[in-house]
Design brief:
The chain has 3 domains: 135 residues, Alpha Horseshoe (MgtE N-terminal fold); 117 residues, CBS-domain (Roll), CATH 3.10.580.10; 173 residues, Tetracycline Repressor, domain 2 (Orthogonal Bundle), CATH 1.10.357. 66% of the residues lie in helices and 6% in strands. It is built from 22 helices and 6 strands. Helix 5 packs across helix 7, helix 15 packs across helix 16 and helix 17 runs parallel beside helix 22. The longest helix is centred in the C-terminal third of the chain and has 31 residues. It is elongated and about 90 Å long.
């Protein structure tokens, strides 16, 4: 596939370099526009600045809008700056509302307002409406280009309407029926429409119980609903039931990618710094707060060890197993954290299933603890010929793993309860907490049995 893309790029570059005196680039247009927009974007972004300027002369703003939508956010920002004259605003007028709003939301307020003032008033008004919703809600990710019909229309009338409206709509797989007050009254699929008799009325064949989402619903819930119902799109309605727009399955894929990236950032304490295109200074600024906080937690860990200095002086061999206890506790807690965060994200953990999940994690921790206790007990006895040391380390690991699994599962549940992202209970955070508890357990057991060594 890489060779094919390289071949396409080289071929198109050669066509672009041919500059007939009459400015005819018919062959380039035919070859370039025959590609899928994603492939067009891949080829276009590989062009040099001068070559890209030629593309702006050859393609209309509408044709280029498909390429622009396929670019990454940072690429869009760079390309928009080099677009000539009013080419950029003409291009935005041709894009779907949600894509325009997403692009403008990445700009500062002054820059976005300047662009909106240069756009078509109707297109700008639609973009402003979407941009006005709370981020990461259904309203903020919906598109306004939706085909709506009346219940009293006939199938033949709707098909004719569809021929006129479809080119400007993002999807026509579902047609939404609205009443006189523009409230959502029903839905009909394209399949049902084209298989119906031309004289039939829409109200006779439509579904009168359409599934919809409110404008203020979280985007994760919208994505989950589309997944549950296997929809290609879901309508977005206002508080009084008016049809505002739709969220399509391609938007959901973007939402899932965004949410997965956000959760990964939270779990690894690098939220906002996962983009490889940001500068080292910005990445360091995003990571520094967590690193500094965890460093202070590390001081607590050091303090715990210091409290048991006398025990360590008596039995120096205990120090060898400190990393083992800390790593095992942290790793086990992080595993349970992943289970809890994923369950909360998918909605599989409900109020009635929390107890079951915690019991499952406790049982898992106990079994893991017993396995590790047996393995360590035998290994330490063979290596050091000290059965009491083996007992201390083995029983400590058993208690630590049993507790670590419960803590790893409980902390995200508590954070979710106070309406925060459960992924905030990041891996490093849980690891540090379990490190401290593991050391307390380890040295407490060792100290209590000190007289027997």
């Amino acid at each position: 596939m890489t060779n094919t893309k390289t071949s396409n790029t080289e071929h198109l570059k050669s066509l672009l370099a041919e500059r007939p005196g009459n400015g005819d680039h018919t062959e380039f247009r035919a070859a370039f526009l025959a590609l899928h927009p994603t492939d067009q974007a891949a080829v276009f972004i590989s062009f040099e600045t001068g070559e890209r300027q030629s593309v702006y002369d050859i393609l209309t703003p509408e044709e280029f809008s498909y390429i622009f939508e396929a670019l990454d956010e940072y690429q869009q920002s760079e390309i928009f700056e080099e677009l000539p004259g009013d080419y950029g605003t003409l291009m935005l007028n041709e894009m779907f509302t949600d894509d325009v709003a997403t692009f403008l939301n990445e700009m500062d307020d002054e820059g976005a307002e300047k662009v909106l003032l240069e756009m078509d008033p109707g297109e700008a008004a639609a973009a402003r409406e979407v941009m006005g919703y709370t981020p990461e809600t259904a309203g903020a990710v919906m598109t306004k280009e939706v085909v709506s019909i009346a219940a009293d229309d006939s199938v033949a009338e709707v098909l004719e309407q569809l021929r006129r409206a479809a080119p400007d709509a993002e999807t026509v797989y579902y047609l939404y029926v609205i009443d006189a007050e523009k409230r959502l009254a029903g839905v009909i699929s394209l399949r049902d429409l084209i298989t119906a008799q031309p004289e039939e009325l829409i109200k006779e064949i439509m579904s009168t119980r359409p599934v919809s989402v409110r404008e203020d619903v979280d985007q994760e819930d919208v994505a989950r609903m589309i997944g549950d119902y296997d929809f290609l799109a879901v309508p977005v309605v206002s508080k009084d039931g008016q049809l505002l727009g739709i969220v399509t399955v391609d938007d959901v894929i973007d939402i899932l990618e965004e949410e997965a990236t956000e959760d990964l950032g939270e779990l690894s304490a690098v939220k906002g710094a996962t983009d490889i295109n940001i500068s080292p200074f910005r990445a360091a600024g995003k990571r520094a707060p967590w690193i500094v906080l965890l460093m202070f937690f590390g001081l607590i860990t050091a303090g715990v060890i210091g409290q048991f200095e006398e025990t360590l002086e008596e039995i120096v061999l205990l120090a060898i197993f400190i990393p083992l206890i800390m790593d095992s506790a942290g790793n086990t807690g992080t595993q349970s954290l992943g289970v809890a965060v994923r369950g909360l994200a998918l909605g599989t953990i409900q109020k009635k299933t929390i107890g079951k999940m915690l019991r499952r994690e406790l049982g898992t921790g106990v079994i893991l603890g017993m396995i590790c206790m047996a393995v360590l007990g035998i290994t330490i006895t063979l290596l050091y010929d000290q059965w009491l040391l083996a007992l201390v380390v083995g029983f400590s690991i058993f208690c630590t793993l049993s507790i670590a699994t419960v803590i790893g599962a409980t902390v995200p549940l508590i954070i979710n309860k106070i309406k925060l992202d459960p992924a905030i209970a990041s891996g490093p955070f849980i690891t540090t907490i379990n490190d401290i508890l593991g050391l307390l357990i380890y040295f407490s057991i060792a100290t209590s049995l000190l007289d027997f060594f």
